Amino acid sequence: MASREAPEINAGSMADIAFLLLIFFLVTTTMDIDTGITRKLPPPVEDDTEIDIKDRNIFKVLVSSSDRLMVEGEVSDIRTLREDVKEFMTNPNNLDDLPEKEMRFIENLGEIEVSKGVVSLKNDRGTSYEMYIKVQNELTAAFGELRDQLSQQFYGVKFTNLVNEDQRKAIQKAIPMAISEAEPENIGGN
Amino acid sequence: MARFKKKKATGAQKINTSALPDIIFMLLFFFMVTTTMREVTLIVKVLPPEATEVQKLEKKSLVSYIYVGVPLKTQFGTESRIQLNDAFANPSDIAEFIASEREARDEADRKFLTTSIKADKDTRMGVITDIKQELRKVGAFKINYSSRKVASLSN
């Protein structure tokens, strides 16, 4: 006997099919999070105004076209760069050839010593990008570690884990990311 | 006289699952819509360098990309080239590119525009320096050197 009612289609597996599609999309879509080292470029200079910075306040880093490193006029190595920068910026023994410090009042921190040191980075046109990023990475790491230290000292947490915006700003002011890149020129050495 | 039937209290009642596919479909569409596929097809080889101190690029809609690397097809040479949108470009084209990128954004968002330089690790700094100089000229100061996060660098 033929049934008089329209037969109901079993839609129970519909959810399974939809789930399958959903999982397919979840797996295949790679939300590639862009990561990188953030920098701020200086505005272009109008004329050749020499900015007078004392020699002791500048930490010269030079990367040659053959990816070799010269720090403060001496051949150096990428592995020691981080510690060198940290020592330069903190000047723990108040040496005469390391940068001056200035007492400055910073909100949330109070009177604090701020180093006048600037890291000057210079590279050749022939330097490889990989080496350049390595150097930038070490510089960032050095400043990051100094900030972590200060943050640990004042707030008990690392700077990277600091969430309070005011506190972050205070630390950033106390240890500014003082990296200056020289105007490009061909320093040769091909 | 009609009598109301007493509802059976016993036995597990079936839950109506006919709306379940709809919910799943909704999720599916959400994911299909939100996942943005890469907008440009790369015509240069880009393998970013590694770094440990990377930051996440937030607000993807406010990022414009400049790709630098060796062309994938050897007929375009083996020198590092700049790719803007879908074509090769010269450093002098960057000003125009940044202008059009700014034009495409809301006026209020323009100052937050970041330029991400996605360059291959074997690129020479000469090209990068040219790009940086062009960016400085047009006032796009916020840049990001795209790099892959690794736990430690192999020296």
Secondary structure elements and pairings:
The complex is a heterodimer of chains A (190) and B (155).
Chain A: H1 14-28, E1 35-40, E2 58-63, E3 69-71, E4 74-76, H2 78-90, E5 101-106, E6 110-115, E7 118-123, H3 129-155, H4 165-174, E8 179-181
Helix pairs in contact in A: 2-3, 3-4
Chain B: H1 20-34, E1 44-45, E2 50-51, E3 55-56, E4 63-71, E5 81-84, E6 87-89, H2 94-103, E7 114-119, H3 125-138, E8 142-146, E9 148-149
Parallel strand pairs in B: 2-9, 4-7, 7-8
Antiparallel strand pairs in B: 1-4, 4-5, 5-6
Helix pairs in contact in B: 2-3
How is this structure best described in words?
The complex is a heterodimer of chains A (190) and B (155). Chain A is of the alpha/beta class and 190 residues long. Chain A has 4 helices and 8 strands. In chain A, the strands form 2 sheets. A 5-stranded mixed sheet of chain A has the order 4-3-2-7-8, covered by helices on one side. A two-stranded antiparallel sheet of chain A has the order 5-6. In chain A, helix 2 crosses helix 3. The mean pLDDT of chain A is 80. Chain A has a domain of 127 residues. Chain A starts with 13 loop residues before the first helix and ends in a 9-residue tail after the last strand. Helices cover 34% and strands 21% of the residues of chain A. With 155 residues, chain B is α/β, with parallel strands linked by helices. Chain B has a domain of 106 residues: Nucleotidyltransferase, domain 5 (2-Layer Sandwich). Helices cover 25% and strands 23% of the residues of chain B. Chain B is built from 3 helices and 9 strands. In chain B, strands 1, 4, 5, 6, 7 and 8 form a 6-stranded mixed sheet that branches. The radius of gyration of chain B is 26 Å and the shape is elongated. The chains are: A alpha/beta (190), B alpha/beta (155). At the A-B interface, helix 1, strand 1 and helix 3 of A face helix 1, strand 2, strand 3, strand 7 and helix 3 of B.
Order of helices and strands of chain B: HEEEEEEHEHEE
Helix content of chain B: 25-40%
What is the succession of H and E elements of chain A?
A: HEEEEHEEEHHE
Based on the structure given, which CATH architecture of the domain at 44-149 in chain B is correct? 2-Layer Sandwich
Strand content of chain B: 15-25%
N-to-C span of chain B = 94 Å
Q: In angstroms, what is the radius of gyration of chain B?
A: 26 Å
> Largest sheet of chain B, if any?
6 strands, mixed
How much beta of chain A, percentage-wise? 15-25%
Largest interface: A-B, 44 and 54 residues
